[in-house]
Amino acid sequence: MSILRVEGARVRFPGGTSVALPELRVEAGDRLLVTGRNGSGKSTLLRVLAMLVTPEGRFEAEVPPREVALLPQRPYLFRMRSLANVALALSSRNIPRGERRGRAEAALARVGASHLAARRPDELSTGELQRVALARALVTEPRVLLLDEPLGPLDAAGIERVEGLVSEPGDLTIVLTAPAPGPLGRLVGRVVEMPDREQR
User: Fold this and answer.
1) Model pTM?
2) Is residue 154 scored above 80 in pLDDT?
């Protein structure tokens, strides 16, 4: 059963450009890679799937927004320790305070970032920041995980963790973007190519 569907949809921007979104059906447990040139609208598509942007045309979701997690290319962390940043994602989920630390520690461990727990954002490299942000996305145990070009800023260890996440069995639905299939193309079930952005 499709949990996210896009058909005949488009997002228009000020200045005369628009993004035509490909017809897309995302099934529960899918591992889907969206490729395309820079500026083709890959990030816009993920924001539509995350229900942050409403397109023209048909978009249907059988999953509530709170069960969809988006990791953008340039995630933002608050000026607090990494462990607190990850635990903060649980504060609005009615998770008892006593459980938040343990779940945040487990999420950091899952992405190989336990050693970063006490560091603040200004003490992290770009790749380390990305890993902490990925832990924050995972800690809420979403049904759908959207990763916008996740391999770009990561070091070798971080790339290995993302590839392992994509490869592991389970019900988590993952949609990723990349300029070209690359190594991810061998791990996902489907590859969808974005059309180039149009001028009005």
Assistant:
1) 0.92
2) no
Task: Please indicate, yes or no, whether residues 109 and 153 belong to a single structural domain of this protein.
Answer: no
Q: Which domain holds residue 51?
A: 1-63+143-200
Q: Is the pLDDT of residue 57 over 50?
A: yes
What span, in angstroms and rounded, lies between the C-alpha atoms of 82 and 7?
39
First to last CA, the chain: 35
pLDDT of residue 200: 46
Do 80 and 123 lie in one domain? The reply is yes
For residue 174 the two structure tokens come to: 């993952």
Q: What is the DSSP string of 49-95?
A: HTTSSPPEEEEEESS-GGGEEEE-SS----SS-HHHHHHHTTTTTT-
Task: Kindly report the length of the chain.
Answer: 200
Residue 68 lies in a domain: no
Exposed/middle/buried for residue 122 (C-beta within 10 Å: 0-12, 13-18, 19+): exposed
